[in-house]
């Protein structure tokens, strides 16, 4: 028996961490992640979750404390957003290289300056090379489900990598949605207690984070690359297993009316659900359009993406971040790179919109798709288009 | 030779955790201090080490100098890593996971990693009250990167980023008083130590580890490379730093200051300064200024210790009075 409740997404996400029976939470408050860590602090304070809650003095220390607790084998969680993710940037490289399975929720937020507490993907894109697995969710149910999956993937002995679960700040963190809560007994089966194979333990001393001369550094980095790349199979395995247990299955590239469609829109994150409404509307009007959504940002799902766009003539990619002075859309840039060597590939149009919490409405998506088709046919001098900018 | 007979039997019995074969410079006072500090501890420890000399010289893959579990992550976050280790063990033990009992977390960093870039993380960890020992091995500059000034570099010292010149006497600021900053967190134990007083150092480290809650030990570590001093004067310079009052040895236990060594008369700071190339350029005026400052600071400390012991006596008298009524 599962229960479906109307609940704020941040609260449900924190409840998922409780159901995962985390041992240590080290976190620092930052909007729009605060409700997640506030609820966790509450769960620990009232004894519903038996964990150590470390109210650290910065995000840099939050991730550092997570590294410490994961290195002794404790199941470890944190959450952050925007500037917080950037402040911990330096530390992010450590657990991925040390193979420490930390799980972190990122309430995606724009980066200053000017200050913005609202959502976009600048923070997520800035940490794409830190060696973490990065999963992106589009609604509250996916957020809750993927927190549970994240622990299982991270702790799999073939993986042992940290995982970020990205959810859009405010658009997801602060909305109330109907969410199906799994049974604790099912969660316990899906996510058994774990033993980190080489913890810091006086009975069996190990050294972590040593100094690598050039003769070994490349090998260390290559080992990291191979395990992150190979983790995709285990992620798929986990999502399959999750589907069997809980009835909801996830895919690295989610498809919506995309099979055979000549025009595709690619989205990342919660705005994809608004885009679906636009797709429905345009299809009802006789347009041959479909949508694909990236669920897995790292490891990048090359095969699944190529498969999903094989019949398309036009692929419009929506980014919520700018790579300044460069290709503009970060996702579009990677998608182009992934398809470049194929003989048959769609024309790619890169669109940037939805920065710093600006909404992208159904009408805006329609306009983006229509303009995108036009640009694909006639060409444009721009490396990328920016939608809705004034002045 | 007679000192040899005093020291060796007491030191050799202790198990080495920081093994020989590391890459520290000849005459490294810090390696000596680390070795002594860890001799004072039992094996039931986990070490979190900040980036710095001791990390670099002791951990090059595929070798390690450490005989105990050891982790290095970054420069400025060691106290935070230690917080996580402590919390991880605590949570798992409470939840019935098989983990060793009474593991003590030892964080260690240099003066830059402590009083500059790592100060925030350290302050946070001390304030939160984690059960850990923080050892600051202070060689008074960023020696690992080639002798740049830190906030722990003493006034007047030449480093590569505080050179002496027409418009500069060298380091322009007075050494940051890190033990006082630690003590201001009202933690149970703060102490200063130096490798030139090995038994005092070992006693303090052992005491720090025996006290529940955060403990901070600030250990002056002579660096011949950075101080431009002969390698065979390492022990002597440590002693002079203490005997001149430049680096007083003391403890702050539950807020009570206690001097570790009675010095009826301080030696002139000149005796210490003149033996080091980093102070060679100092004029008599500057030396007099340093002398004055050292005496004032030393006196302040002595007064704190005296007030502390008076308070302790008063307290015990009041206690006795209570019993009699």
Condensed summary:
The complex is a heterodimer of chains A (391) and B (325). Chain A is an alpha/beta fold and 391 residues long.
Q: Would you write up a description of this structure?
A:
The complex is a heterodimer of chains A (391) and B (325). Chain A contains 13 helices and 16 strands. Chain A is of the alpha/beta class and 391 residues long. Chain A has 2 domains: 244 residues, Thiamin diphosphate (ThDP)-binding fold, Pyr/PP domains (Rossmann fold, 3-Layer(aba) Sandwich); 133 residues, Rossmann fold (3-Layer(aba) Sandwich). In chain A, the strands form 3 sheets. In chain A, strands 3-2-4-5-7-6-13 form a 7-stranded mixed beta sheet, sandwiched between helices. A 6-stranded mixed beta sheet of chain A has the order 10-12-11-14-15-16, sandwiched between helices. In chain A, helix 10 links the parallel strand 11 and strand 12. The termini of chain A are far apart. The mean pLDDT of chain A is 97. By secondary structure, chain B is an alpha/beta fold. Chain B has one domain: 3-Layer(aba) Sandwich (Rossmann fold), CATH 3.40.50.970. Helix content of chain B is 43%, strand content 14%. An 8-stranded mixed beta sheet of chain B has the order 2-1-3-4-8-7-9-10, sandwiched between helices. In chain B, helix 8 links the parallel strand 7 and strand 8. In chain B, helix 2 crosses helix 8 and helix 4 packs parallel to helix 6. Chain B is globular. The termini of chain B are far apart. The C terminus of chain B is likely disordered. At the A-B interface, strand 3, helix 3, helix 5 and strand 9 of A face strand 1, strand 2, helix 4 and helix 6 of B.
């Amino acid at each position: 028996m599962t229960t479906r409740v109307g609940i704020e997404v941040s609260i449900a996400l924190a409840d998922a961490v409780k159901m995962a029976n985390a041992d240590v939470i080290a976190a620092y408050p930052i909007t729009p992640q605060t409700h997640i860590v506030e609820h966790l602090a509450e769960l620990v304070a009232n004894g519903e979750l038996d964990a150590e809650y470390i109210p650290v003095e910065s995000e840099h220390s939050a991730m550092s404390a997570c590294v410490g607790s994961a290195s002794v084998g404790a199941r470890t969680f944190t959450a952050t957003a925007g500037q917080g993710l950037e402040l911990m940037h330096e530390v992010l490289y450590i657990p991925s290289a040390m193979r420490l399975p930390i799980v972190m929720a990122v309430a995606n937020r724009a980066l200053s300056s000017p200050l913005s507490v609202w959502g976009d993907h600048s923070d997520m894109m800035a940490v794409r090379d830190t060696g973490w697995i990065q999963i992106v969710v589009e609604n509250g149910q996916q957020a809750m489900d993927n927190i549970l999956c994240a622990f299982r993937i991270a702790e799999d002995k073939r993986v042992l990598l940290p995982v970020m679960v990205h959810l859009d700040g405010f658009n997801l963190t602060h909305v109330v949605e109907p969410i199906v809560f799994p049974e604790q007994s099912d969660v316990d089966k899906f996510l058994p207690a774990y033993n980190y194979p080489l913890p810091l333990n006086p009975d069996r001393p190990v050294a972590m984070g040593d100094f690598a001369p050039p003769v070994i550094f490349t090998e260390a980095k290559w080992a990291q690359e191979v395990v992150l790349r190979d983790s995709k199979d285990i992620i798929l395995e986990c999502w399959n297993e999750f589907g069997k247990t809980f009835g909801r299955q996830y895919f690295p590239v989610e498809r919506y009316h995309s099979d055979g469609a000549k025009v595709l829109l690619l989205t990342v994150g919660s705005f994809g659900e608004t885009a679906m409404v636009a797709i429905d509307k345009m299809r009802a009007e006789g347009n041959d359009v479909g949508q694909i959504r990236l669920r897995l940002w790292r490891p990048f799902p090359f095969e699944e993406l190529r498969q999903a766009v094989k019949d398309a003539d036009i692929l419009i990619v929506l980014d919520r971040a700018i790579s300044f002075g460069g290709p503009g859309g970060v996702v579009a840039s990677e998608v182009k790179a992934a398809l470049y060597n194929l003989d048959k590939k769609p024309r790619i149009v890169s669109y940037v919109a939805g920065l710093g919490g600006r909404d992208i409405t159904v009408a805006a998506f329609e306009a983006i798709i229509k303009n995108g088709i036009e640009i694909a046919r006639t060409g444009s001098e721009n490396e990328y288009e920016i939608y809705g900018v004034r002045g | 030779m007679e000192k040899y007979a005093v020291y060796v039997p007491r030191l050799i019995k202790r198990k080495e955790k920081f093994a020989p074969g590391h890459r520290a410079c000849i005459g490294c006072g810090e390696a000596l201090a680390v070795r002594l500090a860890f001799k004072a501890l039992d094996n039931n420890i986990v070490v979190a080490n900040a980036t710095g000399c001791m990390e670099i010289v002791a951990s090059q893959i595929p070798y390690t100098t450490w005989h105990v579990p050891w982790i290095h992550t970054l420069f400025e976050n060691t106290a935070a890593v230690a917080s996580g280790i402590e919390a991880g063990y605590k949570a798992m033990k409470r939840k019935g996971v098989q983990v060793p009992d009474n593991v003590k977390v030892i964080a260690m960093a240099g003066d830059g990693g402590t009083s500059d870039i790592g100060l925030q993380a350290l302050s946070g960890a001390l304030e939160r009250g984690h059960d850990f020992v923080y050892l600051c091995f202070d060689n008074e500059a960023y020696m690992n990167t080639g002798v740049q000034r830190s906030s722990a570099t003493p006034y007047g010292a030449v480093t590569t980023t505080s050179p002496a010149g027409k418009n500069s006497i060298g380091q322009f600021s007075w050494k940051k008083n890190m033990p006082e900053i630690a003590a201001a967190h009202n933690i149970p134990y703060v102490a200063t130590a130096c490798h030139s007083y090995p038994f005092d150092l070992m006693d303090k480290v052992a005491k720090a580890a025996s006290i529940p809650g955060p403990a901070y030990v600030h250990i002056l570590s002579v660096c011949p490379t950075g101080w431009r001093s002969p390698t065979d004067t390492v022990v002597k310079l440590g002693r002079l730093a203490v005997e001149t009052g430049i680096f007083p040895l003391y403890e702050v236990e539950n807020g009570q200051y206690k001097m570790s060594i009675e010095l009826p008369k301080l030696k002139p700071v000149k005796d210490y300064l003149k033996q080091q190339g980093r102070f060679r350029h100092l004029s008599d005026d500057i030396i007099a200024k340093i002398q004055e400052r050292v005496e004032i600071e030393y006196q302040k400390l002595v007064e704190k210790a005296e007030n502390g012991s008076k308070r302790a006596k008063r307290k015990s008298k009041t206690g006795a009075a209570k019993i009699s009524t």
